């Protein structure tokens, strides 16, 4: 609909140009009637175009130009087969144009199949984000995001904004939470019918809906002036999506703001976004309840002073005088200040409508940082086939901690480190007891201060490289030997006699396939290669040579 409207605007001084938009959710009979008038330009969704192809109400015999817009998002939504069906029916003699924000291999495959000697035009600027956008990020837990979003909207007095989520379910949930708090919010995602999406967008354009919660796919092509801020409720997977998101504010010479909510491993993606955009994203603290209420009250007071200066309240002076006299007659004795305060409360009742909740980030000197993280030592590393993704999956599957809450991971040759929120450290270490990889036990323990500070690059006396490498290897070997001995004692103390096979619940034969229910076995796509019991014989607490 938006493309059709823009084309109508561009061709309004060219008489005789007929433009038609065809899409699902609209009566197909009306579209068939419009097609009989032979429009020169047709804009449509793949599904509805195919409907008309099957009905023979849309023919491509005289097609001169074909444009595939938002090609990457069409593939992301699963329209590849539909695209192939349509492109195979069009004449060979035509001009084909393909527009895409990104150029993944799937898009290049389409260009090779359906275009002849295509010219690749790439629009690239040195600064990918608009200078007029102030970019911020706040570290916040998942459970605290709704409260933080409400406070940021109120403390900045934002009247029109976009909130981006990564899933349709999350969009519905966030929009519902905002509505429950009294905000004029609506959801926008791909599961909605076209007429519903049009209704939501019209309300947003006219300021009836002040907060639009959307997915990236649904928000493609949104061009609404006056958007004051963009919130990345979920950090996008792709840095390019970040650019598209925040680019919807700071337009037409106006300043815009963007906030990104991050926690744990989101910081890794945030660093990737910073490198990609070549811009500074400033870390800020969440506003306190007192700050929000003070700023909103000040804004209301400014409105009162502005109206008083304009003389808007002169005709009500007699009413104020009557209220005071009436109070005296009733022995209440109200002062002008008492009356003004009551009227202020009546006029700005929304100041008390917001029910802010005290959250973890309101605690004094509370900060999501390494101070709140504990570094765990793992006696396995790159030489053992250990990978970051596998560590995250292992911890998340065996404990109550989610993968997004796991901090940075450092993989070294023979050992590794992982940062865990301090309140989960004991649980994680207990959950990872009996954990095996490549047939031998792998231990998780709190890293020593010496090793932890050294890995973080703190200043310390340097030793020659060879000596340092030897010391690192020796310490790793000692840790692995200690872990192996502990595991051996534990097995001996369990009362197993020689030759007696342990129960299936206690077997550790298959890499990560332990009794704690890890969902995959070694040797598969986990990136952790198990070698069965033969590897276990060679690795019980020993530092294997490579």
Structure description:
- With 546 residues, this protein is α/β, with parallel strands linked by helices.
- It has 4 domains: 113 residues, Rossmann fold, CATH 3.40.50.300; 155 residues, P-loop containing nucleotide triphosphate hydrolases (Rossmann fold); 53 residues, no CATH class; 160 residues, RRM (RNA recognition motif) domain (Alpha-Beta Plaits, 2-Layer Sandwich), CATH 3.30.70.
- It is built from 20 helices and 17 strands.
- It has a 7-stranded parallel beta sheet, with helices on both faces. A 4-stranded antiparallel beta sheet has the order 13-14-12-17, with helices on one face.
- The protein is flat.
- The C terminus is likely disordered.
């Amino acid at each position: 609909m938006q493309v059709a409207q823009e084309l109508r605007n561009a061709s309004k001084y060219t008489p005789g140009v007929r433009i038609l938009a065809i899409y699902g959710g609209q009566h197909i009979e009306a579209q068939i009637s419009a097609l009989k008038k032979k429009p020169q330009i047709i804009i449509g969704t793949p599904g509805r175009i195919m409907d008309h192809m099957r009905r023979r109400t849309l023919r491509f015999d005289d097609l001169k130009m074909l444009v595939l817009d938002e090609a990457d998002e069409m593939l992301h939504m699963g329209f590849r087969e539909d695209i192939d069906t349509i492109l195979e029916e069009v004449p060979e003699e035509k001009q084909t144009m393909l527009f895409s924000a990104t150029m993944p291999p799937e898009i290049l495959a389409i260009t090779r199949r359906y275009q002849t000697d295509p010219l690749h035009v790439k629009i690239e600027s040195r600064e990918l984000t608009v200078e007029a956008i102030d970019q911020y990020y706040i570290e916040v837990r998942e459970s605290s995001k709704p409260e933080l979003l409400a406070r940021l909207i109120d403390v900045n007095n934002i009247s029109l904004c976009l909130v981006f989520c990564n899933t349709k379910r999350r969009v519905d949930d966030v929009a519902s939470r905002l509505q429950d708090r009294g905000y004029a919010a609506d959801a926008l995602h791909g599961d909605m019918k076209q007429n519903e999406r049009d209704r939501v967008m019209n309300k947003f354009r006219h300021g009836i809906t002040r907060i639009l919660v959307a997915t990236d796919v649904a928000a493609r092509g949104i061009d609404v002036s006056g958007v004051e801020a963009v919130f990345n409720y979920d950090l996008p997977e792709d840095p390019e999506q970040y650019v598209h998101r925040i680019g919807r504010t700071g337009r037409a010479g106006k300043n815009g703001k963007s906030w990104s909510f991050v926690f744990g491993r989101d910081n890794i993606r945030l660093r990737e976004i910073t490198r990609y955009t070549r811009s500074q994203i400033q870390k800020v603290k969440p506003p306190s309840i007192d700050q929000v209420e003070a700023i909103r009250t000040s804004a209301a007071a400014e409105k009162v002073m502005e109206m008083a200066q304009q003389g808007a309240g002169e005709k009500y002076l007699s009413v104020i005088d009557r209220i005071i006299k009436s109070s005296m007659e009733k022995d209440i004795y109200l002062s002008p200040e008492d009356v003004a305060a009551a009227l202020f409360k009546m006029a700005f009742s929304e100041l008390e409508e917001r029910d802010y909740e005290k959250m973890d980030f309101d605690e004094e000197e509370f900060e999501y940082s390494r101070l709140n993280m504990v570094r765990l030592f793992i006696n396995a590393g790159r030489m053992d086939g250990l990978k970051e993704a596998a560590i995250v999956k292992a911890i998340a599957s065996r404990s109550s901690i989610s993968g997004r809450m796991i901090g940075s991971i450092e993989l070294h040759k023979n050992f590794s480190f992982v940062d865990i929120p301090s309140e989960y450290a004991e649980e994680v270490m207990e959950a990872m007891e009996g954990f095996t990889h490549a047939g031998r036990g792998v231990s998780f323990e709190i890293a020593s201060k010496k090793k932890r500070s050294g890995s973080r690059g703190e200043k310390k006396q340097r030793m020659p490289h060879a000596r340092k490498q030897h010391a690192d290897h020796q310490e790793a070997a000692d840790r692995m030997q200690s872990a192996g001995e502990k595991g051996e004692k534990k097995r001996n103390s369990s009362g197993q006699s020689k030759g007696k096979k342990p129960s299936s619940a206690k077997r550790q034969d298959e890499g990560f396939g332990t009794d704690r229910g890890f969902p995959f076995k070694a040797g598969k796509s986990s990136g952790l290669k198990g070698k069965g019991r033969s590897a276990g014989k060679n690795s019980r607490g020993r530092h294997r040579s490579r």
